[in-house]
């Protein structure tokens, strides 16, 4: 219930929350203040900079994520916000009720879930920026134009780093989940906005996701490179791990003798999971027997 | 259509008048075409495209009139038949300042200029590490294939040449480490590694994995170790890999550690620094790999090895 209460100042007068520069589209109509049994609508992708709603969305999605089975994912664009205590009339497409991809009966799933370690995303703030003023006035910002043409800013809450360019484009790295990446990008945009620039939040896109996991047994890399020659590259002189370039989800996997696997190059979480499910039976075939 | 075939048949064909079907044998020494059936000399004064032969009559004469030029290399240069005017001899070819009158010696074959340059570079690099002619030829062929494909056009030609040299050594079964190729090339190991992967993808080939035994003979002879120690080191390294004592270690490091163990057990003891210098491995790396194989040292030595220092007296690092 507290989520509803905290939302009340927002739809009350339909006034823009302080600090937002663009006219705000109301996410929840005033009639949804109390549990009316209306089906939850997919949240529109707004360009407003209300951190409050962003954090609430993040909390709800975190709850959903914990419930989600590994075969499910939610894309970064549309999410459903399930109001607590409000059972939906019909299941919305992405509720974690049944798995979407059926597990093949011949091979059981690996039971291991790759953990996301890093998300790189970009966003366009939509206005030219003066990097010198940003570097001088913002905290935790470094700017060395002779070395690199962008301001490097860091925040502590989702521990992330952002590269802010004078064209208004920004790269946000270091977040551990898609939601955190978006939240962190919003925080940086808020910082820039507070410094006086008319910052917007256009075209947020996740460019790269990195995940890692452990198969818990040692792997014979020499065998793997012999059989999967067209995908693998194993040069112990250059790098101790085997570089496997999977084609079906276009993912690069770094496979090490210890059994640790790093997956990178994904645009959505599902690609990482799918790639790992593809490689796991292959790795089981090259398990070291001693 | 009948007309054209008749035209082709009417072209003059060199053949023996008595045996028109016999394939003529070329005698390059005399420049003759001889019929193998009856021995009749059919054609003569055939131009010899091989390298010029030497005349020993007058060693001092620098311009030998029987020379027709350098050996043609049709595989690599694309059959270039252009000629050029050489530098003049004699006094008339120089004008008043001492410059030669006819200067146009450049612009021979601009299309293949870069390729010729690269071949020269490959030969220079190979000479520094005494590589045999077959590896140089293979490298030239690889470079030609990569150059014609143009997929690596942006990369420095020297980097591609170094990577081709590395691949050729690997394909011939005598791999050289990246560091050894770096030592004779001006390109960094990182760039050679990058070009190596790109070339393998461009030519759609693959190379065999390196093993510890590939480097033993070279490292041991550079260190001056006797054959017994070399054989022992080969055996130790192979056994260590079989018993999986050194998972994930580069074969070069394992080989270096095996050489260290074998040399320390023999009369010719070499320090880690010396071995590291020859193998291109840091001595801490040798120390790490040695620590991994030391516990099973007794199992790793070949059964017929003559110990100068017994196994329990081997240095423990």
From TrEMBL, chain A:
It is found in: Nucleus. Residues 1-22, 52-74 are annotated as: Disordered. Coiled coil: none annotated. SUPFAM superfamilies: TATA-box binding protein-like (SSF55945). PANTHER family: TATA-BOX BINDING PROTEIN. Belongs to the TBP family. This is TATA box binding protein. It comes from Cyprinus carpio (Common carp).
UniProtKB/TrEMBL annotation, chain B:
One of its GO terms (biological process) is RNA polymerase II preinitiation complex assembly. The lineage of its organism: Eukaryota, Metazoa, Chordata, Craniata, Vertebrata. The keyword Transport does not apply. PANTHER family: TRANSCRIPTION INITIATION FACTOR IIB, TRANSCRIPTION INITIATION FACTOR IIB-RELATED. It is found in: Chromosome; Nucleus. Coiled coil: none annotated. Its EC number is 2.3.1.48. Residues 12-43 form the TFIIB-type domain. CDD domains: CYCLIN_TFIIB_rpt1 (cd20551), CYCLIN_TFIIB_rpt2 (cd20552). InterPro entries: Cyclin-like_dom, Cyclin-like_sf, TFIIB, TFIIB_CS, TFIIB_cyclin, Znf_TFIIB. This is Transcription initiation factor IIB.
